[in-house]
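Posted in: Structural Biology > Protein-Ligand Complexes

Title: Requesting predicted complex, zinc ion in pocket

I'd be grateful if someone could produce the 3D structure tokens for the following input. Sequence and ligand are given below.
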Amino acid sequence: MPHHAAGPLALAVDIGGTKMAAGLVDADGTVLAADRIPTPRPLPGPDAGEQVWAGLSAMLDGLLKEAGNRPVVGVGTSTAGPFDLAGATVSPVNITAWRGFPLVDRLAAQVPGVPVRLAGDGVCAAIGEHWRGAGRGHDDLLVLVVSTGVGGGLVHGGRPFTGESGNAGHVGHMVVDLDGDDCPCGGRGCVEAIASGPSMVRYALREGWRSAGDGTARDLADAARSGDPVALRAFARAADALAAGIVSAAAMCDLDQVVIGGGVANAADLLFPPLKEGLARFGRLGFLQHITVSPAQLAGDAGLIGAAALIHSPDPYWPATPPTPPTPSMR
Ligand SMILES: [Zn+2]
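-- Reply #1 --
Done. Output follows.
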């Protein structure tokens, strides 16, 4: 794209418990360069948080060098939660070295003079698919990311709907089984406790499945494809849980467009047929009978592309007034 060769770039950052990714993304949403590292796992200690930052910062340095003369006009960040209301510090559940870590300040110091914007990973995935992926052109959209957990984000009226604390769209923790298994969140019967990769594997092992490989969800998918009845049942349960969550969300929000991404995209052949059956079974009211579920288009890049949209397309993706922390007197 020679005519864009000097266009502005967003430095996009994607913070996860397993990996950290970063990329240079242009105004078309094209990832021009990207890098990723396993999330550093320092020994606990006073500088553990700094060690995690050092790993991320070195990766960002490399990308900034690659940008060369092209202007980097902002830093968009997608992060695993939770993060604080003002978006200035992060405490991702699976990065124990970061508790109240001042990520926004650090990024601002590394890339001075440009805005640094941060949103939750589910929201960024939803923004990415809405801006440049499978959800383009739909004012109301639910995006689910099904992998080691079940995350999600909601676009409502063409804008990300983040809710009071920024956490709206956590479809993985909608309760779909009143007597269900414990969920990593501390609750029980959540969509995630049934439909995440590890939850499917746990169920299958409990029911007598013996993995021929390393016992991952990918393994379970292979078993299902060769007709293993327990593996097939694990996928059917997961599909039902997702369908129940989707129908519940649709009943609440009156939306009919859903995009599903995450590692499960590799098992769409196993998941989508029972999911569509589940939607038909649970969604009986007229306005729930036309829910369209599509596979994500941006694969692993949805978070980076959504984070870049916070910079390249602030209207509609970045609110004019960032949320402010509640004062004690308001609570
Ligand atoms: Zn839960």
